[in-house]
Amino acid sequence: MNATSAEQAPGRIILLTTSHRVAPGLLSWSAWQTLHGADRVLCADGAHPQLPYLREAGISVDEASPTAEELVDICAGGRTVVVVATGEGEPALTDGLARLAGSGRFHMPDLELLPASYDLPGARLLDLVQVMDRIRSECPWSSQQTHKGLAKYAIEEAYELVEAIEDGDADELREELGDVLLQVVFHARIAEEDTDSPYSIDDVAGGIVTKLIHRHPHVFGDETATTPEEVKEHWLRTKAAEKRRTSVTDGVPLGQPGLALAAKLASRVRTAGLDVPLPKAEGVGYELLALASRAEADGVDPEAALRAAARAYRDTIRETEGV
């Protein structure tokens, strides 16, 4: 390329984006190479969290917010300019560059988008934790809530989740999963303030990770399981060892709905291979107990079956009413 053509070369603009969910300074190798090889590096935000790490790495960053036309001029002569994007992604700048390109009056530089850090799966959970922390600190209602006060909402959200599953509505299911997740994060945030036994959402997550690994020796260990029944056997065996339970009924929450409770007890008895006859007594309760036990043995969730029948009954009622 001769001197004249070099002076006329439009150059290159690289918009460098980073994720606030990744620790500052943890950039991709291609991002570091691009930053070191650029003729200029610009950033409109002097408090951008990446700047101390870029400067520590020997990269000169100019705090500047040029217009689209000014940036095109800076690139003239074949220069490469990296713009370290702020959290909003520099929409004003990119819109301005698009207008210049559309006008046909400018010899536009190449424009590239270079993601310097990427969100890992589950990264948005960090946003939820941050939002919950702020709400707990600043919201007059949320700041006063307790575990006991929120308990009813956990039950309500769980039932709404089940309803969404039974309705088969994917959008509704996603929303209800979020509502259930909120309950977990909310309780964990409250627990951080406990003066006697504080814990955080990381402790909650760490506990369930440890539990899952320990109860899946066929995945993370040397044991083998080729059927769902063998997986359940592993789970129950390790769970019993962890909890040091003396009865198969230990750990069964008695406050759950009656049919679900009856089915759970029947499942524990059947899984343990115990021969425990049903109580011989008269009354609707004992008849329901027998039905729930029979349903569990047949692989039917009696609670779900009754809800399905009740919903059909509701539809019939509405048809009769002409609704």
Structural notes for this entry:
- With 323 residues, the chain is α/β, with parallel strands linked by helices.
- It has helices at 3-8, 29-37, 51-56, 68-75, 91-103, 124-138, 147-167, 170-191, 201-214, 217-220, 228-243, 258-272, 284-297, 302-321; strands at 12-17, 40-43, 62-63, 80-84, 110-115.
- The chain is built from 14 helices and five strands.
- It has a five-stranded parallel β-sheet with strand order 3-2-4-1-5, sandwiched between helices.
- Helix 6 (124-138) crosses helix 8 (170-191), helix 7 packs antiparallel against helix 8 (170-191) and helix 12 (258-272) crosses helix 13.
- It is elongated.
Task: Output the keywords.
disordered N terminus, 57% helix, 5-stranded parallel sheet, 323 residues, alpha/beta
Q: Nutshell version of this structure?
A:
The protein is of the alpha/beta class and 323 residues long. The protein is 57% helix and 7% strand. It has helices spanning 3-8, 29-37, 51-56, 68-75, 91-103, 124-138, 147-167, 170-191, 201-214, 217-220, 228-243, 258-272, 284-297, 302-321, and strands at residues 12-17, 40-43, 62-63, 80-84, 110-115.
How much helical structure, as a percent, in the residues? 55-70%
How far is the first residue's CA from the last residue's CA?
Answer: 79 Å
Placed side by side, the strands forming the largest sheet appear as: 3-2-4-1-5
By helix and strand content, what is the structural category? alpha/beta
Please tally the helical runs, counting DSSP H or I stretches of 4 or more residues: 14
Number of strands: 5
Q: What is the makeup of the main sheet?
A: 5 strands, parallel
Low-confidence stretches: 1-6
Q: Roughly how many Å is the radius of gyration? A: 30 Å
The succession of helices and strands, N to C, reads HEHEHEHEHEHHHHHHHHH
* Beta strand %: 5-15%
- Mean of pLDDT: 90
What spatial form do the alpha-carbon principal axes imply?
elongated
